[in-house]
Write a structure and sequence with these properties.
It is a single chain. The chain is of the alpha/beta class. It has three domains: 197 residues, NAD(P)-binding Rossmann-like Domain (Rossmann fold, 3-Layer(aba) Sandwich), CATH 3.40.50.720; 83 residues, Orthogonal Bundle (N-(1-d-carboxylethyl)-l-norvaline Dehydrogenase, domain 2); 134 residues, NAD(P)-binding Rossmann-like Domain (Rossmann fold), CATH 3.40.50. It contains 19 helices and 14 strands. It has a six-stranded parallel β-sheet with strand order 3-2-1-4-5-6, sandwiched between helices. A six-stranded parallel β-sheet has the order 11-10-9-12-13-14. The longest helix is centred in the middle third of the chain and has 32 residues. The radius of gyration is 24 Å and the shape is elongated. The N and C termini lie far apart (67 Å). It binds uridine-5'-diphosphate-glucuronic acid. The site of uridine-5'-diphosphate-glucuronic acid has 20 residues, from helix 10.
Length: 446
């Protein structure tokens, strides 16, 4: 089996490397010459735990290679995966499919013998049909089938998610296409991973329905967290109490500053647009989008409240900038809303993130970027924890207290224990948990 993976972003690079680990011959294709040159020297364009070693091993084994030559890669392939970006179109929230359609045309011109063309990128319902039409129009004699095979991997745990998925979804409408897909996923068949075979449209919709459902679950627990604060309940106990019900499930019930990243914000918006266009609006998802946008902005207020209602002229030490830990991805990160809001309110921001600072420097002006967590805290009026990197869980809190001007911590990821923080003499504000005596907000140095 030989495949070509078009696009070496998160999904393309991880899927390509994992397929090669399954024993498939994989050629990853990208237009970006610098990226391909880097990959050939085992320089990863993204930070993803385990990826560098996986790529190095499979390149060495001769199963994985990188090229800018789409034509040669496609001509030799049994299956061609389209894994290019589908960003939100500026201004209207629709998924921008120009890269997908451009790839379809180039693939069409390079096809040689029966080939399965697979959309791996997250694409709105109907895109597979359109890809099929484009290929047919560009190359009327081509022998091909289009398949939808959405990816469910998460940044930060992408390799494990690909290798041990809860399920694989394949939208394929001919026996020939299904046979090739089964062969590619043979390793997962062997470990009895559920494989859902369906139509093109259904497969495309499954991906959006999954992401919007998860975004809804997070938004639900975030609102419950707000209610917990109002009534003196503990959101973690509520999450556990409902999550143990198998019909609800424990995962994705961790409250926070609002979901971010390259997927949920873009996909919720794109599905809202599709649903409206088709006359079947998704009012729940529309509300989720609005609540989440508003929540990110509101989180700055939480920091301001902990600082006596004003941060003017005060220094806030921000720990964590990426939308979640174990990634360098800053896309739609809550920090991009919270930090500018604090700056508008007059705060001086010092910040540190283990992997995200290179990207953050382009996105967040007037921030003092520091070399580590402790350096960030020096002389600050409060610490705000925005991303739950493990190294922040393990901070020496005595040292933290000695470095801060005032012992105020606003923890938007609930990584610390409120009782312990109160005992250590912090004024500690977190999400959806009752305030303890001595840890109420409003205690930042005046
Ligand atoms: C998400 C999905 O989880 C993947 O299944 C999917 O394949 C991927 O999008 C995609 O479409 O490509 P990802 O964006 O990498 O993966 O990250 P998640 O772990 O889902 O987190 C998304 C956001 O939700 C983060 O900002 C995270 O902090 C937040 N979150 C997640 C919470 O606030 N609470 C939770 O309980 C879980």
């Amino acid at each position: 089996m030989r495949i070509a993976m078009i696009g070496t972003g998160y999904v393309g690079l991880v899927s390509g490397a994992c397929f090669s680990e399954f024993g498939v011959d994989v050629t990853c294709v990208d237009k970006d010459e610098a990226k391909i040159a880097g990959l050939r020297q085992n320089r990863m364009p993204i930070f993803e735990p385990g990826l560098e070693a996986l790529v190095a091993d499979n390149v060495k084994a001769g199963r994985l290679s990188f090229t800018t030559d789409l034509t040669a890669a496609v001509a030799q392939a049994d299956a061609v995966f389209i894994a290019v970006g589908t960003p939100s179109r500026r201004g209207d929230g629709y998924a921008d499919l120009s890269y997908v359609y451009e790839a379809a045309q180039e693939i069409a011109r390079a096809l040689d013998g029966y080939t399965v063309v697979v959309t791996k990128s997250t694409v709105p319902v109907g895109t597979g049909r359109e890809v099929s039409r484009i290929i047919r129009e560009t190359c009327p004699d081509a022998a091909f089938d289009v398949v939808s095979n959405p990816e469910f991997l998460r940044e930060g745990s992408a390799i494990n998610d690909f290798m041990r998925p809860d399920r694989v979804v394949i939208g394929a409408e001919t026996e020939a296409a299904r046979a090739i897909m089964k062969q590619l996923y043979r390793v997962l068949f062997l470990i009895e991973t559920p494989i859902v075979f369906t139509s093109l449209e259904t497969s495309e919709l499954i991906k959006y329905a999954a992401n919007t459902f998860l975004a809804t679950k997070i938004t639900f627990i975030n609102e419950i967290a707000d209610l917990c604060e109002a009534v003196g309940a503990d959101v973690h106990d509520v999450a556990r109490g409902i999550g143990l019900d198998g019909r609800i499930g424990k995962k994705f019930l961790h409250p926070g500053p609002g979901y971010g990243g390259s997927c949920f914000p873009k996909d919720t918006l794109a599905l809202v647009r599709t649903a409206r266009d088709k006359g079947a609006p998704l009012k729940i998802v529309e509300t989720v989008v609005a609540i989440n946008d508003e929540r990110k902005r509101r989180m700055a207020e939480k920091v301001i409240t902990a600082c006596h209602g004003s941060v003017r002229g005060k220094t806030i030490a921000v720990l964590g900038l990426t939308f979640k830990p174990n990634t360098d991805d800053m896309r739609d990160s809550p920090s991009l809303e919270i930090i500018p809001a604090l700056q508008s309110a007059g705060a001086i921001i010092r910040a540190y993130d283990p992997e995200g600072m290179e990207e953050a420097r382009h996105l967040l002006p007037d921030v003092v970027f520091c070399g580590n967590a402790y350096e960030t805290l020096v002389g600050a009026d409060a610490m705000a924890l925005l991303t739950e990197w493990n190294e922040f869980r393990a901070l020496d809190l005595v040292r933290v207290k000695s470095l801060l001007k005032a012992p105020v911590i606003v923890d938007l990821r609930n990584v610390y224990n409120p009782e312990e923080m109160a005992l250590k003499g912090f004024f500690y504000s977190s999400i959806g948990r009752p305030s303890l005596p001595g840890s109420q907000s409003g205690n930042c140095s005046p």
